[in-house]
Amino acid sequence: MDLDLSIALAGAAVGFTVGLTGMGGGALMTPLLVLVFGVQPLAAVSSDLVASMVMKPIGGGVHLRQGTVHRGVVTWLMLGSIPAAFSGVLLLKALGDDAGDVLEPLLGVALLVASAATVARTRLASRRGTTPLDVSHVAVRRAATVAVGVGGGVIVGLTSVGAGSLMIVLMLSLYPRLDAKALVGTDLVQAVPLVGAAALGHLLFGDVRLGITTSLLVGAVPAVYVGARLSSRADDRWIRPVLVAVLVASALKLLDVATVATAAAAVAAGAATVLARRPHDGAVPQELVPASGGVAER
User: Which of 2, 70, 123, 225 is most buried per CB count within 10 Å?
Assistant: First the structure.
């Protein structure tokens, strides 16, 4: 089992991005493995999910200790996402030799959905101008939360994409009064069993390459930690548009779209993310909301 230095460096770059922005793990790593390193799609999804199973608990444990996790939301998401993620893997297994032909376009679609979810997440966050409630004061919408878990679980099981970017924007829509830390913390913790179920399915029925997984972890684990340490001080206003542009470009290449059209769409997606950050009319920018509530004076 040889260590691939180039894959380890790619894992470090993706891990740093995840630590810094809280998103982009499977959405970046899987297409990188397929498009840059020539890994077969099923092996890329399987290996990336097993690597994510190791990385996800790092951030989730931090948020649990800080009390920024809505345990009720996590519980109801798990009821839908765990069996759905395993079912997604079984569906891939049922496709047999046709899995590769189906998975590339499916990955492309999943990346486009993740890109749109990222822009929507940015826009929704910019519209929230009131001081959010404490985590424990937000009631759980049980049926809707289970439905989100089912949808997200199937997508993650099939493609490894969506555990972060897609799930968190759906939670933003369901729970607009949760603050940013609670949303990220809840998403990270719910992603642990979700990714674990999908990874277990791929270990049993998929095509996990231990060499690829080990190489990813060697680069990604320390980079996730460094990115997370910097995240409280770094401004992602430019990182997120670049991330969306890369996701769109990767998606369209997987869908065999012409290079010129791919480049134009990637630039447009990045610009849309920048525009989505503009404060909504009547919203109070986050930097003007002090811890005690109310609007701070300049």
Answer: 70
Alpha carbon separation from 127 to 84, 152, 176, 216 (Å, rounded): 32, 24, 10, 37
- Cα–Cα distance measured from residue 139 to residue 236, given in angstroms and rounded to the nearest whole number: 30
Asked whether the beta carbons of 227 and 17 are under 8 A apart, the reply is yes
- Please tell me the total number of residues recorded for the chain in this structure: 298
Contact 45, 157 (CB under 8 A): no
Which string of DSSP letters, residue by residue, matches 129-191? -SPPPPGGGSPP-HHHHHHHHHHHHHHHHHHS--TTHHHHHHHHHH-TTS-HHHHHHHHHHHH
The candidate with the shortest Cα–Cα distance to 149, out of 72, 64, 85, 66, is 85
217 is written with which tokens?
Answer: 């972890």
Q: How many Cα atoms sit within 13 Å of 195 on the Cβ side?
A: 28
Ranges of each domain in the chain: 5-235
What does pTM read for this prediction?
0.72
* DSSP state letters, 197-264: HHHHHHHHHS---HHHHHHHHHHHHHHHHHHHHHHTT--TTTHHHHHHHHHHHHHHHHTT--HHHHHH
Coil vs helix vs strand at 2:
coil
